[in-house]
Design goal:
globular; single chain; 3 helices; alpha+beta
């Protein structure tokens, strides 16, 4: 199930008992998932991984937002890569 924010992703994780929350930068969505989830899509028959930030659902939405901001500030090339 897709969410529009870390807050919604955390709510999904709590409701579904998932241990991780994520922000998929390529798909522009948030959500909750198990540890073994892969993110990507098939392009012309090949699986292409997508850029996601995954974190434990134990953090508050505010902590998740801060950790993501900090990561992006320290790694500007990550968000800019295509």
């Amino acid at each position: 199930m897709a969410a529009k924010s870390w807050k919604e992703a955390k709510e999904i994780a709590e409701r579904e008992g998932q241990e991780l929350v994520y922000h998929n930068h390529d798909a522009g969505e948030y959500g909750a998932c198990p540890r073994d989830k892969s993110f990507g899509c098939f392009v012309k028959g090949e699986f292409v991984e997508q850029r996601c930030i995954c974190m434990p659902a134990k953090f508050s939405p505010e902590e998740l937002e801060k950790k993501e901001r900090d990561f992006l500030a320290e790694n500007p090339e990550w968000a800019a890569s295509d």
